[in-house]
Design goal:
24% strand; Nucleotidyltransferase, domain 5; alpha+beta; three-stranded antiparallel β-sheet
């Protein structure tokens, strides 16, 4: 009995010591966990504060750089003269794309071609609108996209082909803007609007039929389209006039550009007349353009303001770049713009000599 009692008593003491040890171990583990958690919190707080410090420092530095450069205009040097970019001149690229509404586009290299390219330079100081029509066959550096959609460099080719590359209309428009910048010595269009092929007839219909004087004999396209005929175009005739190329005039783009200018001049006059009669027409025009365009980075209010304001300005005759046509190694027509002509237009329209 005593032995058993002593053994039980000893065992009880051992169990109590074990419990005390276990309780102590738990307290120690809890203590270490609390210490570890505190260290983690401190490290995270330190990292956060350090990040904020670097962010604020970077922001302050960036603001400092911006304040240092505030008011400084972009400059270029050409033939010994320095020129300043005129901030009161804004630019808009209008593209006509040879894709219809609902056209299926597969892959990153089949987005269609930009057959019509018109760069508008809106000069608010002189209340003028300059128009530069760019030949779709003009050779320039075009951004190239691989089959997986990644940009793989640039290649010398017709500017119209820039629109073929990209996975969205925004990308295709951006590539065309970049190609135009490469042609114009780095001058990038401030805004862009891309209009589908269906837009020609829709715009003509909206305006109640555009009236033009047919510049040459196109009776093989439509019997009524004889040279010198004054026609109020139906929608089909409007598309024929603006788009047709390969079946007439030897396949070059020069004469088609003349017809496109004839149509656009008539469109501008019609729009001017409609806006003068109805101040809300600019909004209607935007709504139609929104339906027929693939992409624009202009907001509705901004577009309405630009159109309404520009139509009160002196809209100057359309200009083109001089150059020469050749046949490329692939058998297609190429237009090589004269570099001096490019520089002259850019500097005279968008810049002024630094005094």
């Amino acid at each position: 009995m005593n032995g058993i009692g002593q053994g039980t008593h000893a065992a009880g003491k051992g169990m109590r010591r074990q419990h005390r040890f276990s309780a102590l171990s738990r307290r120690r583990r809890l203590f270490f966990l609390l210490i570890f958690a505190a260290v983690v919190v401190v490290l995270l707080a330190g990292a956060y504060l350090a990040g904020r410090w670097y962010e604020n420092k970077g922001y302050t530095d960036e603001r400092q750089r911006m304040s240092e450069n505030f008011g400084k205009l972009h400059t270029v040097a050409y033939q010994g003269q320095t020129y300043l970019r005129r901030p009161e001149v804004s630019t808009l690229l209008i593209m006509g794309v040879d894709q219809r509404d609902g056209s299926e586009i597969t892959g990153y290299r089949s987005g269609g071609q930009a057959d019509f390219l018109m760069l508008l330079a809106i000069d608010s100081a002189n209340r003028q609108v300059h128009q530069l029509q760019v030949d779709r066959d003009a050779i320039t550096e075009v951004p190239i996209v691989g089959v997986l959609g990644n940009q793989v460099g640039t290649r010398q080719m017709q500017i119209c082909l820039a629109h073929a590359y990209g996975g969205s209309e925004e990308e295709r428009s951006r590539h065309t803007v970049q190609a135009l910048a490469n042609l114009l010595g780095g001058e990038t269009a401030g805004h862009v609007i891309s209009v589908r092929l269906d837009g020609i007839g829709r715009l003509n219909s909206l305006l109640g039929g555009v009236t033009v004087t047919v510049p040459a004999d196109y009776s093989q396209l439509d019997p009524a389209m004889t040279k010198g005929a004054v026609l109020t175009l139906n929608d089909a005739q409007a598309e024929l006039l603006v788009r047709s190329r390969m079946t007439i005039e030897g396949g070059t783009n020069a004469e088609r550009m003349v017809r496109q200018r004839s149509f656009m001049n008539a469109v501008i006059q019609k729009i001017r007349g409609n806006v003068k009669e109805n101040a809300d027409f600019a909004g209607t025009l935007f709504d139609i353009l929104d339906e027929i365009s693939d992409y624009t980075d202009l907001q509705r209010g901004e577009m309405i303001n630009e159109v309404t304001q520009a139509l009160t300005y002196d809209i100057l005759p359309v200009e083109t770049l001089t150059g020469e046509y050749t046949i490329g190694s692939d058998g297609f027509v190429e237009f090589h713009a004269d570099e001096d002509a490019v520089a002259a237009w850019v500097l005279q329209t968008l810049y002024e000599p630094k005094k």
